[in-house]
Every structure is written in C-alpha cells, then in structure tokens.
Design a protein that fits this description.
Chain A is an all-beta fold. Chain A contains no helices and 11 strands. The radius of gyration of chain A is 13 Å and the shape is globular. In chain B, strand 5 and strand 6 form a beta hairpin. The chains are: A mainly beta, B mainly beta.
Chain lengths: 107, 121
Amino acid sequence: EIVLTQSPATLSLSPGERATLSCRASESISSYLAWYQQKPGQAPRLLIYDASNRATGIPARFSGSGSGTDFTLTINSLEPEDFAVYYCQQRNSWPLTFGGGTKVEIK
Amino acid sequence: DVQVLESGGGLVQPGGSLRLSCAASGFTFSSYAMNWVRQTPGKGLEWVSGIFSSGGDTHYADSVQGRFTISRDNSKNTLYLQMNSLRVEDTAVYYCAKARRSGSSSPFDSWGQGTLVTVSS
C-alpha cells in the first residue's frame, strides 16, 4: 500500500500568513492526489483534486502543486476559517490511502 | 443540493454485525461511485471500501476485506455497508462519501455527517 507522509504535523501561523503543507508518497502516484479540509465536528471537504485542480466553490487562495511523490498545498493569506486539519489522499492504486494530517492552528 | 445521510450506527459486541445505510439525494445516484471512509475518534481518516456506479466493481481496505461488504441499490438511491465479525478496532465514525465520477477511485466531493459505530463488550 502507498504510504502518505504529511509534514509538519502542526503548523502555527497567524491570519494573513501563507501556509505551506507537504505530502510525500512512498512511491510515484502521478498526479492522483487530493487534499481535504476538516474542521472539528464536521466531515472532510474536498479542496483540491488531481494535485492542482480546485474543487467547486473553493477559494482561489487554496492551491496545490506537485507530481510523482512530492506534493504541496498552499494557502495564501490565511483566513480565520482556514484553521483546521488538512489531509492528503492518493487514488493512484488500491487501497486508497490518506496521510496522517496537518493541523493548521492559530499562533 | 447534494446530500448523503448515513444511518445504522450503534453499539455492538465484538463478533457482532451491523449494516450501515447511506441515503443519497440531489444528484443522479446511479452515475457516481460511492465510498465508505472511517475515522477513529481524535485520529485520522481511513478509506474502507468503494463501489463503482453500476455496482459491478468493489474494493476494500485490507483491514476489512472478507468481513465487510459494500453494496448499492440504485433504484433506492442507497448505499450499504454490511459489517460482520466486528472488532474493537472497527470503532469509528463511518462516513459515506460520493465520488466525483463513476469510478470509485475518484476523489470524494460530498460527505455525510457520519454515523458512529462502537464495538465493545
């Protein structure tokens, strides 16, 4: 199974700052990577699919990049509602797998 | 609006069985793959199982293979997860998740609010 390693585990930032989250795959997954946001008590929400495509309704401050084994989610100018946990997920091969998550917290 | 609503969770003893349901509305259910994803309280996400739009192709996580069965009734717009031989480690919130396309490996663009399954004696 493909293992996804997210870093850092926690990111402490202030509103208005840029967040850079990393996801590394144990083997190449082409561009088959998605990013999700989850807030406490809520279900996850799809942000980015196939590495760089924003899902419907997702603000332009969220962007994704990467291919192969290294991927990045960037959040430009953090808004108060962006403080949450972010997960990456690969769909290159079965079983589908998620990373362990990065918590973006208010500094 | 797209909606998926899980039901059927509860408390069950180890070795017992439970069937989860997911009622879908607001989209053409038969055109999209569906999945189950679980989350242990306070922990991360684990994909459990997926089924293609037609129901003809299914996939499972190794941790549930042979114990869980995913199915769908496109005439009722409902997804199911039959869980047998439940273990304490199956305790989690189970989410129903709609895929973006007909293939079940597609990213999950709509999620339910989840149903809690607790396996304990």
